[in-house]
From TrEMBL:
It comes from the Bacteria. It comes from Desulfuribacillus stibiiarsenatis. Gene3D superfamilies: PCu(A)C copper chaperone. This is Copper resistance protein CopZ. The keyword Signal applies. InterPro entries: LpqE-like (IPR007410), PCuAC_sf (IPR036182). Keywords: Signal. Residues 1-21 form the signal peptide.
């Protein structure tokens, strides 16, 4: 009887630990991208907002770039108690994280003025595990960028 009890405990421990494994690969989707001139003073400063949906294991969002503007500076930011500050990365668990005003968002500096922006450009998002996820975008006249598809997936 004792052997059966020990086997049952060991089996339940095995099932529990394998069922809770974080070895599952991330499955990242980036949606609802909008870029607008920032409320910060200065020409060529933009803020970006979007949703990252992860249908898999954890990942880390480490940065982004716009290949058409190699001279620009790109930063991740957060807001706490009304103050914006730069951050190095954002942990992306299973689920959704919204990058929005008053919270996580991206900043772009030394970009062309709004009138000089091309109609189409690309944003490349960088993740630790997922690598680069490229999202081609269309610039709308009112300053909002929307994906050419409803969502882009690696």
């Amino acid at each position: 009887m004792r052997k059966i009890l020990i086997m049952a405990v060991l089996l339940s421990m095995f099932i529990f630990t394998t069922g809770c494994s974080s070895d599952k690969a991330p499955d990242i989707v980036i949606e609802n991208i909008s870029i607008a001139p920032s409320s910060m003073k200065g020409e060529g400063v933009y803020s970006g907002y979007f949703t990252i949906r992860n249908n898999g294991g954890e990942d880390t969002f480490t940065g982004f770039m716009i290949p058409e503007f190699p001279e620009a500076t790109f930063e991740l930011h957060n807001v706490k108690d009304g103050s914006m500050y730069q951050i190095e990365h954002v942990n992306i668990p299973n689920g959704e994280i919204e990058f929005k005003k008053g919270g996580y968002h991206i900043m772009m500096f030394n970009m062309p003025s709004f009138r000089q922006l091309p109609d189409v450009f690309t944003i490349v998002f960088e993740f630790d595990k997922s690598g680069s996820i490229t999202v081609p975008n269309v610039l709308k006249p009112e300053g909002v960028i929307v994906p050419t598809e409803s969502s882009m997936k690696k």
